[in-house]
# Entry
Amino acid sequence: MEFKAGQIAALIGGEVDGDPEVCVNTFAKIEEARTGALTFLANPKYTHYIYTTDASIVLVRRDFVPAQPVRATLVRVDDPYAVLSNLLEYASQAMTPSPVGIEQPSFVAPGVEIPGDAYIGAFAYVADGVRLGSGVKIFPQAYVGHGVEIGEGTVIYPGAKIYHGCRIGARCIIHAGAVIGADGFGFAPLPDGSYHKIPQIGIVTIGDDVEIGANTTVDRATMGSTVIGRGTKLDNLIQAAHNTEIGCNTVIAAQTGIAGSTRIGDYCMIGGQVGFAGHIQVGDRVKIGAQSGIPNNVPDGARLMGYPAVPEMDFARQAAYIKRLGELFTRVKALEKSEKQ
Amino acid sequence: MEFKAGQIAALIGGEVDGDPEVCVNTFAKIEEARTGALTFLANPKYTHYIYTTDASIVLVRRDFVPAQPVRATLVRVDDPYAVLSNLLEYASQAMTPSPVGIEQPSFVAPGVEIPGDAYIGAFAYVADGVRLGSGVKIFPQAYVGHGVEIGEGTVIYPGAKIYHGCRIGARCIIHAGAVIGADGFGFAPLPDGSYHKIPQIGIVTIGDDVEIGANTTVDRATMGSTVIGRGTKLDNLIQAAHNTEIGCNTVIAAQTGIAGSTRIGDYCMIGGQVGFAGHIQVGDRVKIGAQSGIPNNVPDGARLMGYPAVPEMDFARQAAYIKRLGELFTRVKALEKSEKQ
Amino acid sequence: MEFKAGQIAALIGGEVDGDPEVCVNTFAKIEEARTGALTFLANPKYTHYIYTTDASIVLVRRDFVPAQPVRATLVRVDDPYAVLSNLLEYASQAMTPSPVGIEQPSFVAPGVEIPGDAYIGAFAYVADGVRLGSGVKIFPQAYVGHGVEIGEGTVIYPGAKIYHGCRIGARCIIHAGAVIGADGFGFAPLPDGSYHKIPQIGIVTIGDDVEIGANTTVDRATMGSTVIGRGTKLDNLIQAAHNTEIGCNTVIAAQTGIAGSTRIGDYCMIGGQVGFAGHIQVGDRVKIGAQSGIPNNVPDGARLMGYPAVPEMDFARQAAYIKRLGELFTRVKALEKSEKQ
# Structure
């Protein structure tokens, strides 16, 4: 996939300033770009890089006036960042495999209807009673259990597993190795100290436009449903326990864990490796720093950090105080000494 | 699956108080139940919900006397909670797929005997020398390596991987994506700063009645065996390193990590995201709070929390003191000031 | 696999002192060894075990003189630890399955060349454009996406997934369930609070002699490449986000997370459950204790611990001070009281 500066300029309505024959085959940031890369200059802070970059093409604003000679071919556009985003989308669609049809051998239970524009990869397993929307892509080695429903345009990447009865919305992306609907972790202690498994007969419901990261686990509810709201994005290796409910358009970074029955609101931003206690309520528009521990309810709009979590600004202050504890002990000792005299 | 109040009462020896024709198709907690749900009232604290619930059927004690009119049909039994638990078990067995037989295509090495009541799902791989107990279920895309032994009634969910030589007890549940018996993480540094892999020739031994959560990893021993004791339950995304030994009837929540050669006793309860250092001994009946870090041995019966962990009560006190550090610095400053005068 | 003391001595150039007919079938540490095990004595601290061990054979130095009677057969060699390591290597090679050939059913896209000494397990998926080095082993149910390159001698264990375009070096080991090249976690907020997915068109590049643990995830770059350097070893359940770069011969323990665009140097040793913020630089030969949080750049050779991390020695001191906070509050109160009088 190689494009000339002239072709790109024509595609995006830009103006070539330099060699229209120069070719690119990749994208890069301006500070890292090598020969063959297309990059862009949007933030004035990065302007100095344009005089040293090895990039072959740089997208710049129409009114950009170089203060020194520039080796790269410039393509002048109204909004370099927006144009780059669009080019990235085109490239992504061109580069990401988007197969259609049913590869063999795959397993599709009798009676399951596969839409004509869907993809079922080799070694994928589609159990009885499954309902698939149009354009669904089930990559190789993925498992779709009994009675699962998957909305249109959703992509299930290789080896993801959806246990029986779960419901996945439209335009979702479930990455490789994610496990949706395994049993919640519930056991009743018996008098002899052993445990009796509490049946987990609920399901998992995932809204539209949700992305679930690689090897993330979302457990089925004991009764009812574990819920991931519309537009929410979960990173890799996250644990969402049984009966958790995560709102809409909430973003959670990798390795965070949410204990059972906890509810997290809409529009939250949660850092990586955070732990939420069970049975708590976290409001809307909450921001939580990485590695925090959240033992209690959190009101709307709070910004927390730490273990146990405190308001973000208090966390920085606490850390500073803790660094000075040795000094404080010394000062108290000095006071005690002078008092005795 | 829909049942009438009259059918349920007959099944469980209850007495209908209301419409015997009303139907239910699901279970719910009394505070969340909607039309079509069966719920129960056991804890008197929840009694007020019975007058407002939309549940279609409520299991109540035989001597329950409503203080106000109740819309739901009541079914009177001796012990509502016990009856509900039994109904949940029935429902769980009815709803959880329990297939039998060998689906094709699957891979079973020559000479491996598959019991008549076992299940081998499509795309499952059963290597040579494997021994399977009666009623074992190997779901699709699971991998059972060379010489593995699996006890009767054990379920291996889709995509779980058991490396060669490992031994799994009877009535275990291994959830999707769990990896049992990958190499322990052992490397000997060489003079040039690179590493030589130390062979990991041990195995993993899992006792009877163990449950292993989705995407949890239990590494094989360097020599000998990593051991998970009878009745122990591991949640999702847990790491148990090489030569760890976890006792019997111990419960460990998600994302906890146990470093190499550490031993954890029987009847312990370990929170989520806890980290155990390597080569330490943790006693029996120990309770450890979420996100704790355990650097040293822990005696029987201890209750710890924090990073590094301290007794549970000290942790709360420490957190309270830390919140007041700013105040303490101010007080010390005031003392210093008044001393100078 | 059973060997007599005489056979072993002949193999390793040792001298039998005891019964040359005694047999062993396993290895063990001297303090744990039972009948049938071969062990070794290298560290004088462990000498007392030789008089009580149930091991059948003990490797000892040629000049070892027992102070009491020894039941085990001794095999005298120049360097017992080195000899044991060699025997372990032999045993490991003998015990670890090392299959060759193409099992059926597997999926190999037309045009992909499978070297004669390679292994493609049943239900493995090898997409179009894949290039495989000699001796590569792709275990069952592994996925190798479009255009992936894998260097000679690399082993991909069951169910590991390599997304399209990624490059894996020679002699690497990718354990079961690892996911290489899933989309980085990048979303642009829209005015209505929902998110637009930022295309992730980069790849993952893994150097030679790298080991990636079970269920570890290494995301593809937004642009360019996420990089794991030559000789680096990642344990299980690690998250390496998009555009992270990890140097050569660095060792990272389980469940650690590295946020986007962070660079970690060469020869580092990183504990388990550590979290690295995004866009930071960590130098060479850095050591970081388990569960630490690294918010900022780290210079070469630093040894850090804590959340947020501080120099290792300060961490121990801080923890000690924090334990004494109650005492400090009491002392300050006493000073205040005496001042008032």
Remarks:
- Helices of chain B lie at 5-12, 80-95, 312-323, 325-340.
- Residues 304 and 312 of chain B are 5 Å apart (CA to CA).
